[in-house]
Amino acid sequence: MKTTRSIVLSIAATGLVGFAACGTTFPPQDLVNARTAFARANSGPTPKTDPADLHSAKEQLDLAEASYAKDGDTQYTRDQSYLAVRKTELAEVVGRTRQTDKEKNGVVNAMHADEKQAVASTSAELGRTRTQLANQNVAYVAQGTALKDEKSRRQDAEKRAAQASADLAKFATVKQDPRGMVITLSGSILFESAKWDLLPSAQLKLNDVANALIKEDPLSKMVVEGYTDSQGGVSYNQDLSQHRAQAVRDYLVTRGIAGDRITAQGFGLTHSIADNKSPEGRANNRRVEIVVQATDPSLSLR
Q1: CA 37/CA 229 separation, integer angstroms
Q2: Sign of the dihedral defined by the CA atoms of residues 51, 57, 63, 67, in that order
Q3: Domain containing residue 209: CATH number
Q4: pTM of the full structure
Q5: 97-131: pLDDT as tens digits
Q6: How many Cβ atoms are within 10 Å of 204's Cβ, its own excluded?
Q7: Beta bridge partners of 268
Q8: Residues of the chain with pLDDT under 50
């Protein structure tokens, strides 16, 4: 009872600060959610089990509070608030995992080490590639030739797209259609039925997607398309699919994909790819497709 009362007082105090800073306006719901999430996490075991991530979440919340205090309810304030919620939830997930199963710490640390090694290897490879390209460019200028003609630029773009497709195919379904490269992630690993909160396993998959896209295709525009199964009404499923697409889009932005490169769109229960009569079919229909649109090769040298 004492803990619950402390949480309520903390949330109320935070709300009063926001109210006083912004006059008579009410803070956006995203900022309220961020305050509530952080108060909950800060009152639980997370400060001891995952202080680093919780500190990062607090810094993110401070950015959102500062934006609200300065400019009020803006899109930037809402975006910063959303990131604060996500970082707080991540801290809670990690904290609970460490508290309930200490043996998993070894696995988590090994995964982090592998990720750091992968980043280091990728950085070294990119460094070598940049050096090679720089040397090639100097040679081309010295010889008085163009850096690349239209044909070579197109081949380079196609090669990058093919490499990205190959990397993504290791952990997702990838195909090419008139929309571009389509990366399909099954709803069974992304969401619970009738919800749009990303599962922890979904975040790991999306980390791989973001890493592959940033490495191989840093220019293309992307659309995250959300779909649902046939359970529920048309309006409900349309809203649910939009929330799911937005959740994936926002998470990819936190992983380093520029926000102006990626949008979200929900399609509800339309365009089913499986029979909605079976649980497996409905799970497949609860999918998200990331459509990487083809980049005009001529833009790469502008």
Answers
A1: 30
A2: negative
A3: 3.30.1330.60
A4: 0.45
A5: 998 887 676 766 777 888 888 878 878 888 887 88
A6: 12
A7: none
A8: 1-2, 4-5, 7-9, 11-13, 15-23, 297-302
DSSP code at position 300: G
Residue where one domain finishes, among candidates 100, 121, 136: 100
Is there a domain that residue 27 lies in?
yes
d(CA 130, CA 258): 21
Residues linked to residue 224 through DSSP beta bridges, in sequence order: 264, 290
Q: Are strands 262-266 and 222-226 parallel, antiparallel or unpaired?
A: parallel
DSSP state of 301: G
Tokens 């790819």 -> residue: 273
73: containing domain: 2-100
Q: Is residue 174 domain-shared with residue 83, that is, in the same domain? A: no
What is the tally of structural domains in the chain? 2
d(CA 126, CA 214): 12
Burial class (CB in 10 A: 0-12, 13-18, 19+), 170: exposed
Both 164 and 239 in one domain: the answer is yes
Q: How far apart are the first and last CA of the chain?
A: 63
Cα separations in angstroms, 273 against 130, 136, 167, 206: 42, 47, 24, 21
- In order of 58, 96, 214, the CA distances from 84 in angstroms are 7, 18, 23
* Of 84, 100, 116, the domain-final residue: 100
In a domain, 106, yes or no: no
Query: Does a structural domain hold residue 281?
Result: yes
Burial class of residue 191 (count of CB atoms within 10 Å of its CB; 0-12, 13-18, 19+): buried
Is residue 165 situated within a structural domain?
yes
